[in-house]
C-alpha cells in the first residue's frame, strides 16, 4: 500500500533530504588512507593514485592532463612547475631546470654531468663544497638536485590529494633499473624533503612487468613464460627479460603468480633527448648558413631554447610524417626561421644512435641465458619506441612482430600504484610476487694477515649479478681477534658493464665498516667450554634495491654439562618434577621435541634396566657386570653435552663512501629553504584569490544594481552607497591597491559585503519565499489528510482501534488551523510591504512552522506504528439448567482454569501452547502469526 507523502514532494523536502545526506556523509569515518605512485621520468611525470573504494587511476594535473613536464623555474620570486615552467623556459632558459632525475646522486666530476653541460650550456652549475654534488646557481639562490626533485614530488602529492580528496603521505617511486646506491639514496632523501614516506623504489621495467602480468594472471601456469620488455625513453634505453610462472608458496602452500627479472641490458645515453639535441643543432647550423644575422645562434641561450622546443615538436611529427617544416618566429635578431626537414635527414643525423638500438636486448638475453626463440613476445613501452626507425630495426632484429598492447606512457606508473596498494595498509589486492634482479654485483673486501706477516685482501661476493632480491646475506669473519674494518664495493663490473658505463656509475666504493670491542667481547667470553664461531655480519638488499648492514655479532658456542647447572636451576627442576608428578627422569612436554640430553637419559635408563635384569637372573655374572660397569658401562652412562649458542653484538660504524648523505644541518637547511618557497607560494595564492574575489564582487554588484530584480530590493540610499563603494574600490585597485597584500583585499571585500548584504538578503527572501510557501501548503494538505484518517483510530470513532486520544486529535487539528491562519495573515501583511523594506515573512519563519507541524504529525505516526490491539478474555460458557450442582462446580473450575490460560496467551496463540517465561533469560519472540499485519502497519494512511 502507498504511504502518504507528508512533505508533498516539494523543494523544501528536497532541501531537507539533502541536508540529512550531507550530515550523514560528514559522520561517515574514512576507511583508510590513499597512496600514490610517481613515475618521475626525465621529461614527464605521471602520478597514479588508489584510495578506499576507488580503483587505480591516473591523477590529473591543474590543466586536466595525465602527465606533467618535470621542469621547475624561478623568476622574480615566483616558482613555476610543469607547463608554466616550460613556457617561461623559452624566454629565460637559465631559470628553467629540467632533466633533473639523471643528475641525482652524481658528483660534479661525473661524465653524466659533463654531458648535461654540453647539452644545456646556459646553466650555471657549481659544486656543493661539502657533498661534491651538482648545484644550480640562479642569481643569489642555489638549489641542489634533491631540493628541486623534492618540489616536483610535492606538486605530485598535491595533484594526488586533489584527485582522491585525502591526505597522502606514502608512495612508490619508479626509478631506472640502472640506478645505483647513490642515485637511489638521493631520491629517498628528496622524498623525505617532500614529507613523503617511500614504501618502495621500483625499477621501471619491473613496474611495467607487474602491470602487464596483473591483467593476464589467468594466462599463466606452472610452466614459465618469457617476455622481453623494451623501453626507449627521453634519456635512456633498457631491455629486460622477465618470466611469469605460478609457484607454490612454501609457507602458505598457496599457488601464486611470480614475475621475475632474469636479465637486463641498458644504454644510459641512448634516448629521445639525444635525437632532439642533434636535431636542434642541425636546425641551428642551417639557420647560421642562411646568413640572416651575423650573430651565431649557438651563443644566444634564448634562441637555443626556441630551437630545442621546435626540435622536440619536429621529432614527434616526423614519427608519423615523412617530412615537415620547422618554423620559428623571431628566432634571433627578430629574424624568422623556416626549414623543410625530411624523415630521411632526421634518420641520417641519428644513424650511429640507431646502430645501438639492439644492444640492450642482446645484453639482457645474454645475462638471462635465454635466446629469442623461446621468448613469447617483445613488448614495447616508452615514448620514443613510437619512432618508426626504432620499430623497424627492432622488428628486423627479433624476426617477429612487436607487441604494442601496453600504454607506453602509463604502464610503469600503473604497475607501481598496484604495488603501492599491496604495500600500504587498508587495501587488499590479489597477491603477485615480484622478484627483481641485482644489476651491479656487491662484494665485501677485508684484510687478512698471512703466515709471512703480510696483509692480503680477501674478496667475497655478497650479491652476484642477476641474483634475485630482496635478499639477506651473512658473512663470517673467523680469523679476526681484534678490532678491524672492511669495505663493501661494486664487484666484477667489467663482466657486466662497458668501460664508459662504469665511469657513469661514479664511485665503486660503497661503505667502510669499522668494528670495535672485538677483543673485549672475545676475552669476556674466554673459557674452556666456550668456542668462538666467528663474527657474523648480516647484510640486506631490500625491495628498493638499497644495500645496508643490518647488524654484526660475535657467535659463541658454550658446552654445558649437567653438573654445571646452578643450584637455582636444580631447585627449579626439582619443583617442576614435584608439580608434574614425575618420578625422576626429565620428560619432554607434548609441545617440545626431546633434546639430545633427554634421549641419552632414556638410553641410559634402558641400559640400567637390562643390567638389573642380568643381576637377578644370573648371580654368577654379577662380578662381570661390575667390571663392565667400570668400563663399557661407565662409557654408556656418559651424557652428551648440551650446546648453547651465545650472541654478542659488536659495535659497528658505517661510513658511506659513494656520496655524503643529505643529513644533519644540510638537510635542515634544505627543508627550511623549501618551506620558505612553499610559504611564498601559499601567500601568493591567497593574494590572488582575495584579489579575484574582490574584483568579481565589485563587478557583480555593479551589474546587479542595474537589474530590476535587485535594484527593487534596495532603497535609493543603499543603492548609492553600494555604487560609491564599488567605484572607490575600482579606482583604488587600479592605482594604489595594485600591490596590496591579501589581508587588505579581504578587508575591503568584507566592507563591501557589509553594505551590499542587506540588499542581497532581501532579494534572496523574495526569491525563495514562494517555494517555501508552496512546500508549507503541501505539508498542510498532507497533515489534514492524515487528520481525517486518524479520527477513525479513536475510541469514539472505532473502539477496537483506539490508537489516539481525543486530546491528541484536537491538538493536531488546532496546530493545522493555527498554521493555516498564520500563513494567510502573514502573506497578506507581507504583500503590503515594498520589496526594499524590511522583510516581515522570512523563509526561516516558514520553515519553523513546517517543523512544528511536522513534529505533531510524526508523534502520531510513531504512536500508530507502535500500537497493538488489546486481547479480550474469552467469556465462560453458560451452565445448562439440568446439570447437577457438582458438575456445575466442576465446569466452573475448568472454565476458570481455561480463562486463566487464555489471559496468559499472546494474540492469536492457540490454546494449550506454552508461553515462554521471561524468567528463564530467553528472549520472547512473537511467532509469525504475531507479526503485525499490513493492516496493523496502517500504510493506507
N- and C-termini, Cα separation: 9 Å
Main structural class: alpha+beta
Largest sheet: 6 strands, mixed
Tally of separate helices? 26
- Strand percent estimate: 15-25%
Average residue-wise pLDDT: 82
What attributes characterize this protein structure?
extended, signal, six-stranded mixed β-sheet, single chain, 26 helices, 21% strand, ATPase_NBD, 29 strands, ATP-binding, alpha+beta, nucleotide-binding, disordered C terminus, 941 residues
Can you give a write-up of this model?
This protein has 941 residues and is an alpha+beta fold. The protein contains 26 helices and 29 strands. Strands 1, 2, 3, 4, 11 and 12 form a six-stranded mixed β-sheet that branches. A six-stranded mixed β-sheet has the order 18-13-14-15-19-22. Strands 21-20-24-25-29 form a five-stranded antiparallel β-sheet, with no helix packed on it. A hairpin with a 3-residue loop joins strand 1 (35-40) and strand 2. Helix 6 packs across helix 13 (411-423) and helix 21 runs antiparallel to helix 22 (742-790). The protein is extended and about 120 Å long. The chain starts with 10 loop residues before the first helix and ends with a helix. Keywords: ATP-binding, Chaperone, Endoplasmic reticulum, Nucleotide-binding, Signal. It comes from Aedes albopictus (Asian tiger mosquito). Residues 889-903 have a biased composition (Acidic residues). It is found in: Endoplasmic reticulum lumen. This is Hypoxia up-regulated protein 1.
Amino acid at each position: 500500500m502507498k504511504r502518504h507523502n507528508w512533505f508533498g514532494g516539494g523543494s523544501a523536502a528536497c532541501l531537507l533530504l539533502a541536508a540529512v545526506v550531507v550530515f550523514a556523509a560528514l559522520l561517515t569515518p574514512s576507511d583508510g588512507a590513499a597512496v600514490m605512485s610517481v613515475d618521475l621520468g626525465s621529461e614527464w611525470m605521471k602520478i597514479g593514485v588508489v584510495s578506499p573504494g576507488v580503483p587505480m587511476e591516473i591523477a590529473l594535473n591543474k590543466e586536466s592532463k595525465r602527465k606533467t613536464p618535470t621542469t621547475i623555474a624561478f623568476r622574480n620570486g615566483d616558482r613555476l612547475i610543469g607547463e608554466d615552467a616550460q613556457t617561461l623556459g623559452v624566454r629565460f632558459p637559465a631559470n628553467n631546470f629540467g632533466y633533473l632525475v639523471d643528475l641525482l646522486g652524481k658528483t660534479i666530476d661525473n661524465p653524466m654531468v659533463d654531458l648535461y653541460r654540453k647539452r644545456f650550456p646556459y646553466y650555471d652549475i657549481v659544486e656543493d663544497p661539502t657533498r661534491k654534488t651538482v648545484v644550480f646557481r640562479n642569481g643569489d639562490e642555489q638549489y641542489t638536485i634533491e631540493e628541486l626533485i623534492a618540489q616536483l614530488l610535492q606538486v605530485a602529492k598535491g595533484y594526488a590529494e586533489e584527485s582522491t580528496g585525502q591526505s597522502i603521505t606514502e608512495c612508490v617511486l619508479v626509478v631506472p633499473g640502472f640506478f645505483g646506491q647513490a642515485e637511489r639514496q638521493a631520491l629517498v632523501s628528496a622524498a623525505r624533503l617532500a614529507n613523503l614516506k617511500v614504501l618502495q623504489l621500483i625499477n621501471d621495467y619491473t613496474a611495467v612487468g607487474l602491470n602487464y602480468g596483473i591483467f593476464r594472471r589467468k594466462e599463466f601456469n606452472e610452466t614459465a613464460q618469457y617476455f622481453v620488455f623494451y623501453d626507449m625513453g627521453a634519456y635512456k634505453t633498457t631491455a629486460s627479460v622477465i618470466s611469469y610462472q605460478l609457484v607454490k608458496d612454501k609457507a602458505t602452500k598457496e599457488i601464486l603468480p611470480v614475475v621475475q627479472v632474469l636479465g637486463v641490458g641498458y644504454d644510459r645515453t641512448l634516448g629521445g633527448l639525444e635525437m632532439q639535441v642533434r636535431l636542434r643543432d642541425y636546425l641551428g647550423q642551417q639557420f647560421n648558413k642562411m646568413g640572416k644575422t651575423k650573430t651565431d645562434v649557438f651563443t644566444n641561450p634564448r634562441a637555443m631554447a626556441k630551437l630545442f622546443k621546435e626540435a622536440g615538436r619536429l621529432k614527434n611529427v616526423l614519427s608519423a610524417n615523412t617530412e615537415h617544416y620547422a618554423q620559428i618566429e623571431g628566432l634571433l635578431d627578430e629574424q624568422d626561421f623556416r626549414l623543410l626537414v625530411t624523415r630521411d635527414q632526421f634518420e641520417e643525423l641519428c644513424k650511429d644512435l640507431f646502430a645501438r638500438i639492439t644492444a640492450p636486448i642482446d645484453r639482457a638475453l645474454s645475462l638471462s641465458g635465454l635466446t629469442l626463440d623461446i621468448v613469447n613476445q617483445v613488448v614495447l613501452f616508452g615514448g620514443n619506441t613510437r619512432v618508426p626507425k626504432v620499430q623497424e630495426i627492432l622488428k628486423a632484429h627479433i624476426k617477429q612482430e612487436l607487441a604494442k598492447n601496453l600504454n607506453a606512457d602509463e604502464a610503469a606508473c600503473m604497475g607501481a600504484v598496484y604495488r603501492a596498494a599491496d604495500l600500504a595498509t587498508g587495501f587488499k589486492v590479489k597477491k603477485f610476487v615480484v622478484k627483481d634482479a641485482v644489476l651491479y654485483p656487491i662484494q665485501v673486501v677485508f684484510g687478512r694477515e698471512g703466515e709471512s706477516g703480510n696483509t692480503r685482501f680477501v674478496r667475497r661476493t655478497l650479491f652476484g649479478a642477476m641474483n634475485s632480491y630482496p635478499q639477506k646475506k651473512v658473512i663470517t669473519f673467523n680469523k679476526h681477534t681484534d678490532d678491524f674494518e672492511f669495505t663493501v664495493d661494486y664487484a666484477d663490473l667489467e663482466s657486466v658493464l662497458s668501460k664508459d658505463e662504469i665511469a657513469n656509475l661514479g664511485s665503486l666504493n660503497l661503505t667502510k665498516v669499522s668494528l670495535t670491542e672485538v677483543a673485549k667481547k672475545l676475552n669476556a667470553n674466554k673459557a674452556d667450554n666456550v668456542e668462538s664461531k666467528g663474527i657474523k655480519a648480516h647484510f640486506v638488499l631490500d625491495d628498493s634495491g638499497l644495500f645496508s648492514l643490518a647488524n654484526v655479532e660475535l657467535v659463541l658456542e658454550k658446552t654445558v654439562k649437567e653438573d654445571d647447572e646452578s643450584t637455582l636451576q636444580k631447585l627449579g627442576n626439582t619443583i617442576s618434577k614435584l608439580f608434574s608428578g614425575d618420578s625422576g627422569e626429565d620428560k619432554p612436554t607434548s609441545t617440545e621435541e626431546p633434546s639430545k640430553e633427554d634421549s641419552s637419559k632414556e638410553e641410559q635408563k634402558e641400559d640400567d634396566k637390562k643390567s638389573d635384569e642380568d643381576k637377578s637372573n644370573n648371580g654368577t655374572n654379577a662380578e662381570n657386570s661390575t667390571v663392565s660397569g667400570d668400563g663399557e658401562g661407565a662409557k654408556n652412562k656418559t651424557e652428551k653435552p648440551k650446546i648453547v649458542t651465545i650472541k654478542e653484538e659488536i659495535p659497528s660504524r658505517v661510513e658511506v663512501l659513494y656520496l655524503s648523505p643529505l643529513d644533519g644541518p644540510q638537510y635542515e637547511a634544505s627543508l627550511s629553504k623549501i618551506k620558505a618557497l612553499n610559504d611564498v607560494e601559499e601567500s601568493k595564492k591567497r593574494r590572488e584569490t582575495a584579489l579575484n574575489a574582490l574584483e568579481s564582487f565589485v563587478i557583480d554588484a555593479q551589474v546587479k544594481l542595474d537589474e530590476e530584480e535587485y535594484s527593487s530590493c534596495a532603497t535609493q540610499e543603499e543603492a548609492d552607497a553600494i555604487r560609491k563603494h564599488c567605484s572607490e574600490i575600482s579606482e583604488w585597485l587600479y592605482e594604489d591597491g595594485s600591490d596590496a597584500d591579501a589581508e587588505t583585499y579581504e578587508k575591503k571585500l568584507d566592507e563591501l559585503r557589509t553594505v551590499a548584504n542587506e540588499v542581497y538578503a532581501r532579494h534572496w527572501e523574495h526569491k525563495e519565499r514562494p517555494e517555501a510557501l508552496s512546500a508549507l501548503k503541501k505539508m498542510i494538505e498532507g497533515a489534514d489528510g492524515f487528520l481525517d484518517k486518524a479520527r477513525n483510530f479513536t475510541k469514539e470513532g472505532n473502539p477496537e482501534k483506539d490508537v489516539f486520544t481525543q486530546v491528541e486529535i484536537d491538538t493536531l487539528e488546532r496546530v493545522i488551523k493555527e498554521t493555516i491562519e498564520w500563513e494567510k495573515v502573514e502573506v497578506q501583511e507581507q504583500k503590503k510591504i515594498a520589496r526594499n523594506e524590511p522583510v516581515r515573512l522570512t523563509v526561516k519563519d516558514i520553515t519553523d512552522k513546517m517543523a512544528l507541524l511536522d513534529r505533531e504529525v510524526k508523534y502520531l505516526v510513531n504512536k500508530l506504528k507502535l500500537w497493538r490491539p488489546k486481547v479480550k478474555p474469552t467469556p465462560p460458557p453458560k451452565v445448562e439448567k439440568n446439570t447437577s450442582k457438582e458438575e456445575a462446580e466442576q465446569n466452573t473450575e475448568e472454565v476458570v482454569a481455561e480463562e486463566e490460560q487464555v489471559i496468559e496467551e499472546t494474540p492469536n496463540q492457540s490454546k494449550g501452547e506454552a508461553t515462554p517465561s521471561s524468567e528463564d533469560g530467553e528472549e520472547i519472540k512473537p511467532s509469525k502469526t504475531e507479526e503485525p499485519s499490513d493492516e496493523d502497519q496502517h500504510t493506507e494512511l
